[in-house]
């Protein structure tokens, strides 16, 4: 939660002074990408540990920081964006769809993780020479970065609405 005021009062004004135009959709796309980067860091750390090296537990701070930063950019910005884009009569419905999208995402992760438990999938992963855990982290990183790219491409053509505090239905 400390990142939200930091972003609003320090980071975003600094980026705007540097000439970077921030929109809600750009923040969300960046948040998805930062989440992907966190999984790359986790996968890399796992590869180091799989190779027999011992690493300090403090290395966990970096992926957690990246993931938390990405989460703040997606969740806080996304909720505000969804609320601002919906007309008054649809604000409750759009918030319900936001929660539904989180549920669908969690179910997708559950299915992806369950599929790795299959012996045939585990054997295929073993053929790559990396551990199942590292493979999963790189898989989710690749998926997140692909999602960030698709999101950014779609966001370029999105027409913004202004229903943030609209009083008409």
**Tally of individual domains:** 1
Rg, nearest Å: 19 Å
Mean pLDDT: 89
Order of helices and strands: HHHHHH
Shape verdict? globular
Number of helices: 6
- Please report the distance between the alpha carbons of the first and last residues: 32 Å
Structural class: mainly alpha
Largest sheet: none
Write the topology of this structure:
Layout (H helix, E strand, L loop, with lengths): L2 H15 L6 H27 L10 H25 L5 H26 L2 H10 L3 H24 L14
Descriptive report:
The structure is a single chain. The chain is mainly alpha-helical. The chain has one domain (3-7, 25-155). 75% of the residues lie in helices and 0% in strands. It contains 6 helices and no strands. The protein has helices at 3-17, 24-50, 61-85, 91-116, 119-128, 132-155. α3 packs antiparallel against α4. The mean pLDDT is 89.
Short description:
This protein has 169 residues and is an all-alpha fold.
Give descriptors for this structure.
75% helix, mainly alpha, 169 residues
């Amino acid at each position: 939660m400390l990142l939200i005021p930091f972003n609003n009062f320090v980071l975003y004004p600094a980026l705007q002074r540097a000439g970077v135009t921030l929109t809600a959709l750009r923040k969300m796309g960046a948040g998805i990408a930062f989440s992907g980067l966190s999984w790359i860091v986790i996968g890399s750390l796992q590869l180091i540990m799989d190779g027999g090296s011992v690493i300090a537990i403090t290395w966990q701070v970096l992926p957690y920081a990246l993931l938390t930063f990405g989460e703040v950019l997606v969740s806080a910005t996304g909720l505000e964006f969804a609320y601002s884009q919906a007309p008054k009569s649809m604000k409750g419905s759009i918030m319900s769809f936001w929660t539904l999208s989180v549920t669908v995402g969690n179910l997708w992760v559950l299915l992806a993780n369950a599929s790795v438990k299959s012996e045939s999938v585990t054997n295929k992963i073993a053929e790559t020479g990396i551990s199942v855990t590292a493979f999963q982290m790189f898989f989710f990183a690749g998926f997140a970065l692909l999602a960030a790219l698709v999101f950014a491409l779609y966001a370029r053509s999105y027409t913004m609405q202004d229903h943030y505090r609209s009083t008409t239905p």
